[in-house]
Every structure is written in C-alpha cells, then in structure tokens.
Amino acid sequence: MKQLIAPFMLLLVILSSCSEKIKTIHFSPVGISEFNVPIDSLPIPQSGQNLPALQRLHDSCMGVSFAANAYFLRNKDTFSLGCVINKHTMQMVKNLASRGAAGPNIFSMVNVMAAKPCYNKLTDNVPMDSFFRKKVELQLPAQYQPLQNELNSLLNTAVYTTAETGAWTYVELTDGVGKLLDTTTNADLLQYKEAILQPDNLVLIRSGGVTDFTFHLTTAHPVSAALKAFLLQKPFTTVEGWDAKPQLFYLDDTHIEVNVIGYFQVMGQFMKAEMR
Predict the structure, then answer these.
(1) Which residue has the higher pLDDT, 232 or 183?
(2) pLDDT tens column, 67-93
(3) Among 46, 114, 172, 210, which residue's Cβ finds the most Cβ atoms within 10 Å?
(4) pLDDT of 38 over the 50 cut
C-alpha cells in the first residue's frame, strides 16, 4: 500500500500545478472618479460645453458607441492610442508607439473604423476659441497682413457661430496588445508592460476623432471690400501650433465660413490594466 501512496501523491501535485491559472493582462473600464486631478486640468466636459453633443454625433455617424471618459478637442493630439498616463497628473508616462517598440505587430492590434462625412451641426453658439480651448488667431500671408487684424476681429466678435462635423474615425486597441505583452521578451515592451500595470497609471484604449470641422460665423460688422476680395479667393491660412491650415470662404458681407481639415481627437476611453 505504501508503494502506491507515493505515486498517487505525485500525480495530485502534477494535476494541481497544471490546474493553476496562468495570469494574463486584462483591461478594465474606469469612471471619471479615477482621475484625481482638478477639473480644469482634466479633459472632462463641463456644463455648457458641446462635448456630450459631439459624442452623440459620433455615435449616430459611426453606428458604434463607447464609454468615453476623456474629452480632448485640442488643436493637436495630446495623447496617442496606447499611451500610458498617470491619473493624478495626466502626464504621459509611456507611449506604445515610441521607438517602434511594437514593430509591425501594431497594425494587427488596432481596429480602425471610418465613416463617410455626416455633416452634422451643433445647434448651439460655438465660438472657435471655446471649441478648441485655445485663442484662435488666423495668420495670413505677408502681402495680406493689413487684413489680418480685421479678419481676426470679426472672428473674435462674431455674434453667432455654428460648428459642423465632417467625417468621424474610431480606433481601438484589440486584445492582441495583451497577448503580445504576455509573451514578449522585447526590452521596450517589458518596460511598457511594467508601466501599464502600475496602479496609478491608465491606458488609452479607444479614441474617436473628426477629420474636419466647418465653422459658420455671423459677424457683428460687414467685411470690408478688401477683405471680401481676399475671401473670394478661398484662401488657406495658418494658426501657430497647428498642423491644419484653415480655409476661408466668403458667403456674404456678414457671413464667413472657416473649414479646418486635419485630424482632431475628440474623445477617448482610458482603462486600467491588471494581471488576473
């Protein structure tokens, strides 16, 4: 009988070790309460802003919805997909795309969905400055400098401005990211894995953005004859710090259209990563 016990106990140990679950990386949604910074430092919509309305336009146009917990609408992308931020400071800790750590694997780990332009308007008055949370000063070519002050004055004192969205784009990281990090031996990816597993860090998993916005402005005063002649050329302008080049259109003496083409990340969903 004693000779049978030892092999039996060995079999139990082997079966027990085989039944132990191997922990893998999982991403879980987080609520606004996870962001422990002042509200004016956090990209969360405040009352009176049109960001919740933009989310509804996204859902309607794309036919897909996600639980966004951050709203950006900056003049350029603040955070890239997969970036790791500290939830207390909102500062980036690590970027998945830095130094190409993920290599060609990154393309198999991203779902991209684009929609045809929906051309949906926000019905409320939306000044460009408040929309982008930045004072928008259009810069004209040197030969048209005398018109620059007049143009920006008309934009800044417009009595009514409506914003219209063009085409939306939705991107998300798939569970392939977790699978890659569970098996990687790449030094950069191991550092990235360590960063996302820190309890104070969050990862941007989903993002929705717009490729162009059009603003229809009703000016407080008629445009001058010189400015009208300039606007009829449908000129492109620049804004300091922007990659996009707004294009101007003359509608009539008190209505100007500003079309901004580029890519504007509007909202995203940060998640926490954990091993389980």
Answers:
(1) 232
(2) 888 777 654 556 788 889 888 887 888
(3) 210
(4) no
